[in-house]
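Schema walk-through. Below, the input block comes first and the output block second. Nothing else is stored per chain. Lengths vary across the set, and this one has 472 residues.
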Amino acid sequence: MSWCNYSKRKVHFGLNGILFSLSLASSLAYFPISQRLLKKSWPFPGIELIRPLRFDAPADKDKQKEKARVSRTSLILWHAHHNDVAAVRKLLEEDRSLVHARDYDNRTPLHVASLHGWIDVANCLIEYGADVNAQDRWKNTPLADAEGAKKHTMIELLKSYGGLSYGQNGSHFEPKPVPPPLPNKCDWEIEPSELDFSSSVTIGKGSFGEILKAHWRGTPVAVKRILPSLSGDRLSGLRHEVNLLVKLRHPNIVQFLGAVTEKKPLMLITEYLRGGDLHQYLKEKGALSPSTAINFALDIARGMAYLHNEPNVIIHRDLKPRNVLLVNSSADHLKVGDFGLSKLIKVQNSHDVYKMTGETGSYRYMAPEVFKHRKYDKKVDVFSFAMILYEMLEGDPPLSNYEPYEAAKYVAEGHRPLFHGKGHTPELKELIEQCWAADMNQRPSFLEILKRLEKIKEKTLQADHHWNIFNT
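--- output ---
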């Protein structure tokens, strides 16, 4: 048995990312932590550690196995606490069940990562099947911890995977915050004089006007500048887009910064992403490797799963490579943007029908029900996603030998692009075919797509690993 002296008051402290109760010091005997590490991590000056931890040799193999298991539990929580995603992944590759590891207070590695805002660690844990709604001893979920610690990016990530916020406090360190009110107009209205166009560069044009790279308060931004001569409908369309964007917060959604709506020309200001759009990237790179295409598809699907979250469903209606942006030239990360044609729908329950009619969006990526002016819902975005995933693997736009309108007509007649590239694994091909199904009710949701892609990614990584071993 090991023990330590401490003040009589009950003290909780964090070690290896684990909350231990010193009043139950005997439980520490199950954790093989060296005295050196404990002294280094000891967070309470004035509370002296009297004796080193001592562990007796296990009596049999079962105890040895249990000790090894608890040691790995301690390690994964420690690495999650210190944002060491490589070490976390290595442990999970050796033992996937560690993703469900629990400390004394029933906290999982995802609780630890969420509390500290470690996005890469959280993504890794979710990839290996972490329960986003696991509850600790206080009945708090990882999302409740992230909200309590005000880790906004983490909050959006967990919500995109169906994370729920409930628990006694929301966080063990801070009270659960009251959700902020929606921004007032004055919070996002930008004075035109604050925008610096002295070194502006045109990065896009359309019938609405142009998109420029400019600077706002010293920061590069993208400015959608609307032609003053546009009709009232087009102007109201910009205001509609602003009203949508101001509510969106997600790592895979282009961040809205502000707008000019009280003076002409009207302008919409968003973050500037240096990598350009996916259309240009594919034009330069051609067909992507399966692993790259899967990673890109995951980013798009995460953003779309967030938009499709009930009860406030946002249907993009114009999902295409030009509206998917790369955060940098290394193409590490993608974001969905351009919500000019998006539609916000209030859903009372998951069985509600919220369908619209009208030919909206870009023909080449358009769902057949839209082209036919039939009723449609959020699954139109799933169809467009399938066409984008196809293009990433093929290297050419779908039905590139057809003009856009003719391509949409051909698809509406029941035809689909043919698979030519070598990057189509059977699982990817099956997913694409289900996503562009003629019957929109047969298309999976983006949450389902995320799960499928994660499994395909895991299988692809394993195949790459075996291939690398074979070639070394």
